[in-house]
Design brief:
The complex is a heterotrimer of chains A (211), B (103) and C (94). Chain A has 11 helices and 4 strands. Chain A is an alpha/beta fold and 211 residues long. Chain A has a two-stranded parallel ribbon. Chain B is mainly alpha-helical. Chain B has a single domain, classed as Cyclin A, domain 1, CATH 1.10.472. With 94 residues, chain C is mainly β. Classes of the chains: A alpha/beta (211), B mainly alpha (103), C mainly beta (94). At the A-B interface, helix 1, helix 2, helix 7 and helix 8 of A face helix 1, helix 4 and helix 5 of B. Strand 3 of chain A pairs parallel with strand 4 of chain C, so a sheet runs across the interface.
Chain lengths: 211, 103, 94
């Protein structure tokens, strides 16, 4: 289905082989061609943009979480002033939006959503997964967070407050999950390997060490 | 018309279980994403305008279009609204491309 | 910045359903909450969505709601909450 390494497409990029073009295929082509003809952008601009790979992935968020687990001073700064803390690690947080880090504990469990669209902390996690953007998740997590977490294999009893955070404006929310038990003495790299994308959204816990 | 939220305002609605599978972006998705980024970086549109355009889609389209299909529909609305292209030009080009594809 | 509401203050989200690009989710309209924090001032997205400048900036609050105040049949824990970022003009003192 996806011709992932097809770099020799020309301006009038061919439709994916083996099937008739849909109206959406034709619409994309029509708009792209016309915008190029009108010099809104050039074919080169488009080629360069298409070839730009996402430089940010959940591994970036994992590094930040691992460092917060290993370094209490960094953790404090991350919670108080995430932009500064992350820029100090070399990340370009950019002009806007603003990052907020939410700490999960034994008694408080945050889970993040954007019910209105798909706002997500891309600056540290890269693009959101399909499920995060789905109407199923966006609709249900605010009204039935325990049911949704259960679907992701996460059970929390009633002594834990589940706090659903709906990203309705310029702030972008990243969950700082609790450090798993049995990780004493692990390096930041080893810790980062336990930090999954889903635990930084809040639908799961981090992985536990395999002993 | 306004005793209900827009099609995008989904909080509290139950659409059933969540499909947790990850899907790779297709080349088509990547091209739409690229056009989107160029229009935003080139300050042709604001992200708020794009969101508003998506929210204006008829409910049946909002519910059935994929993520990038919605963005492309929004791009189409805004480029016409801002006078970059006319609906006529788009329709003409579409007809030409349809003919070429059929031929 | 002149924020009307203070951290810890009880607020009520305005009711109503005006046309246009609104970032206050329908499920929170008319619901009682508490100001948990103040994010600062931001341009109004309702105007940015129509090519306007969205000025003057408006205070944006992180507002916390008890789930049982939001959903009549909420079946989770009594302490469960839901939060959202809400602009000042969508809030009244409770």
């Amino acid at each position: 289905m996806a011709h992932h390494h097809d770099h020799d497409h020309d301006d009038h990029a061919p439709i994916e082989e083996g099937r008739a073009p849909t109206e959406f295929d034709l619409l994309e082509q029509a708009i792209r061609e016309l915008l190029i003809e009108k010099n809104i952008f050039s074919a080169d601009d488009l080629r360069r943009q298409v070839d730009k790979t996402d430089s940010v992935s959940p591994a970036d968020g994992a590094k930040v979480v691992a460092k917060a687990w290993a370094d209490p001073a960094f953790k404090a700064q991350l919670l108080a002033d995430p932009k500064t803390a992350i820029e100090a690690l070399g990340y370009d947080v950019g002009p806007a939006p603003n990052l907020v880090v939410l700490e999960n504990t034994d008694t408080l469990h945050h889970v993040v959503v954007c019910t209105l669209c798909s706002c997500y902390p891309r600056v540290l996690l890269g693009p959101p997964p399909d499920w995060y953007k789905s109407k199923e998740y966006r609709g249900r997590v605010v009204i039935d967070p325990r049911g949704v977490l259960d679907e992701f294999g996460t059970q929390l009893d009633d002594t834990v407050e589940i706090k659903v955070v709906d990203s309705t404006a310029d702030m972008r929310y990243l969950v700082l999950p609790p450090r798993p038990a049995g990780t004493e003495g692990m390096s930041e790299e080893q810790l980062a390997a336990l930090v999954t994308r889903d635990c930084m959204v809040g639908v799961t816990f981090p992985d536990t060490p395999v002993n | 018309m306004h005793d209900m939220p827009g099609p995008h305002d989904l909080g509290g609605k139950d659409f059933g279980p969540i499909d947790q599978r990850d899907h790779e972006r297709t080349d088509w998705d990547n091209r739409v994403d690229a056009v989107l980024k160029l229009m935003l970086d080139g300050r042709r549109f604001r992200v708020d305008e794009l969101r508003r355009a998506i929210e204006s889609l008829p409910e049946k389209d909002y519910m059935s279009f994929s993520y990038y299909q919605k963005w492309l529909a929004a791009i189409r609305i805004l480029i016409v609204e801002k006078g970059m292209l006319s609906e006529d030009e788009i329709a003409t080009r579409l007809a030409q491309l349809r003919e070429k594809a059929a031929g | 910045m002149s924020a009307t509401f203070k951290v810890g203050q009880r607020v009520l989200v305005k009711d109503g359903d005006p046309p246009g690009h609104i970032r206050t989710p329908f499920f929170l309209r008319g619901k009682p909450g508490v100001i948990e924090s103040i994010h600062g001032e931001f341009r109004n997205p309702e105007e940015l969505a129509y090519g306007k400048e969205g000025l003057p900036k408006k205070p944006l609050y992180f507002v916390r709601f008890l789930q049982k105040d939001v959903w009549p049949d909420y079946r989770g824990a009594a302490a469960d909450t839901v939060c959202a970022d809400i602009y000042e003009h969508w809030l009244d003192a409770d």
